[in-house]
Amino acid sequence: MAREIDEAWIDEAIDRYKRVEGLRADFERAVTAHQVSVHSPDQSIEVVVTAAGDIVDVRVHGGLRQRDQIEFSRQLKAVVTSATEAARWAREKLHAEVFGSFHTLEGR
Hints:
Blueprint: H1 7-33, E1 35-39, E2 45-50, E3 55-60, H2 69-99
Antiparallel strand pairs: 1-2, 2-3
Protein name: YbaB/EbfC DNA-binding family protein
Organism: Actinoplanes ianthinogenes
């Protein structure tokens, strides 16, 4: 028994695939370009991270000579952890913005 081909459904599926691919490319560009800045709890270290999770800058405020090494390490670890969380948050927010209005074929 031959199956009937629904060409309109196929055309719609192809269009939706192209749209998803376009949205995915937009999302990839956005996560690479979007940057978030976070600070250590004592505000002495600033880390700039992309939504993709790449650290693009680290700034230390104040001198390093008088700083306690152990405390500096704690502050550095805290700000890197915050940067990781900020990147995840930014990625989720961008994902919702880019894909939020997209509906699945089943959700029509």
